Amino acid sequence: MSQGEKIHEPTMQAEPQQEHLWLQQLVGDWTYEAEALIEPDKPSETCTGSETVRPVGGFWILAEGTGGMPGGGDATMLLTLGYNPQKQRYVGTWVGSMMTHLWVYDGELDKDGKTLTLNSEGPDCSAEGKMTAFRDVIELKSRDERTLTSYMLTGDGTWLRVMTARYRRVA
């Protein structure tokens, strides 16, 4: 390189798209109450907690939740969500202090603009060592209320609701 020649660095300045802006609706402090199915033939159990969702630039969100576990004990959860314009899909991850599995999300926003469905694969609660499909559905009820409903694909091909959490904005 000769003296005075400039190095051209690739620009990494992208502009947030509508899909990125949709995620920003989740930013804030929330409380939740969840109802979870621990075993298929047993009554569901409830737990409560809180979640702080913050933006990571204009493209991602990071949600950190803490709360009780159904059946007792405390849990910490981390969720990342973003939008990949090349794939035209929402992408993300989820980890929880109660398990060793890394959940990797791939999803899409419904035409209504209020429901984000995230697909993943995880441990089948009914069969030790087996994996199955999961579906987490985030539905915006209003600016200050949303739900997260988790479904597991069962061996007979039906979707079993395993958890519903109702979130309310506190800030």
Overall description:
The chain is mainly β and 171 residues long. It has one helix and ten strands. It has one helix at residues 18-23; strands at residues 28-36, 45-56, 60-68, 74-84, 89-96, 103-109, 115-123, 131-142, 145-153, 159-169. A ten-stranded antiparallel beta barrel has the order 1-2-3-4-5-6-7-8-9-10. The longest helix is centred in the first third of the chain and has 6 residues, at 18-23. The chain is globular and about 70 Å long. The chain starts with 17 loop residues before the first helix and ends with a strand. The mean pLDDT is 91.
Question: What brief labels describe this structure?
Answer:
171 residues; 1 helix; 4% helix
